[in-house]
Amino acid sequence: MMRKWCFLVLGLGMCLIVRAQGDSTAWNTAFQKAKNDLRSLAGQPAEAYVSTGRTLEELAVQQPGNPEVWYFLGTAIDKFNTSSLEKLHASTLALARRASDCFVNSIDLSSNNKYTGETLLFDPHTKILSVWGAQAERYLSAGNKDSAIWCMEQAKVYGGINASVEDYFKQVLDECTDSAYLFANGDVYFYYISYLQLVKNYKPQVHCISLNFLNTQWYPEYLRKKGSLQFGFGAEDLAKIKSRKWKQEEFTIKNKAGIAGDTAIVWKVTPKEGSYMLRSDIILKDFLQENGFKSDVYFAADVPDEMRLYLGVDNYASLEGLTLKIVPSWRATSLTRLENRLATLNELSIEDDGDFTYNKDNIQVLNNYRFAYTAAADLAMSQNQLKAAENILLFEEKKYPETLLPFYADATRKWFDGFKEKILMAAADH
Q1: CA-CA distance, 105 to 50, in Å (whole number)?
Q2: Is this structure's pTM higher than 0.90?
Q3: Cα(324)–Cα(185) distance, rounded to whole angstroms?
């Protein structure tokens, strides 16, 4: 049901009077300009969104049946409320609720609840999750866990949580040992796991850390005070960490736990020319060295190479299925164990939960099932087990056919088809 409320945008205390719908051409021109203005404001402080927010509010009054204008109005309100991760702790519940209401409207006004308008990064379902997830994190950082739980419950109530995607993240947590650290990036990963741990009490002992949030000043300090992340430096030095130019270097992690008898692991890092080692990278490096394998450390499998300091299957990361586990052994992934794990991953069913296809972000997450098989096939190829690689891909196609799980983009499908062709040709020639 469409959420109805007085048009009070951005906390400005301005209630507009509904006017007769004007000329549609003029409205479309004004709306296109407002959308372009909103895009151009990325990275700007909260106050920069006020003028565009007022314009979008007026446009929504004039055409309240347009789902796209509600989406962009919700985005303007959300950006005013949390213009950056650094300012997240200053967000307000009232504005979070208003932004959520706008995204609910954009969904309710769409055919079959499938929004097809333009987006800024996320679908409105995911925007609802992000709005309430950010507010939950704000309450957690202030020590108010009950309010954080309530916020994540609202994410579910208003359509930000999907059952198939929720089950995916349960399996991510299932791969983590008790009291392990799981590093993830992006709103979808972090807030789904927050929902599972806070609302469902599902594996709450796993420490899920947002790599994105580590770039802020407040989040690492919050983790340090809470005791969730151990560092080799104090609060003053932590606050001084800044990004720096990233050149080729060698990293070392001492094996403080004595696992496998190794004294340390060492690997070379060769970043792209002109890249920077971000604040999050420096903090992660320090934590890994301080931890020294005393607690298990995992990365979500789709965390980019540079965000996990180039730890991967080619050096000291074991592929577990949907995660990578950092281990003190060189190229330690067991193909047999990995294949057994893949066989246990959930199947998908439109009958059980067909609405996962309504949200392109859900499709992107669930495609990680497909790419877990791809990674396993690639590992089999590297070990010259060509028939095993072929069988892995054929099993994936049967389990996750495109008719059930669409590809996120045409480029993704093209890459997958090329990868499959390479493996099938190699197996045929063997």
Answers
A1: 21
A2: yes
A3: 14
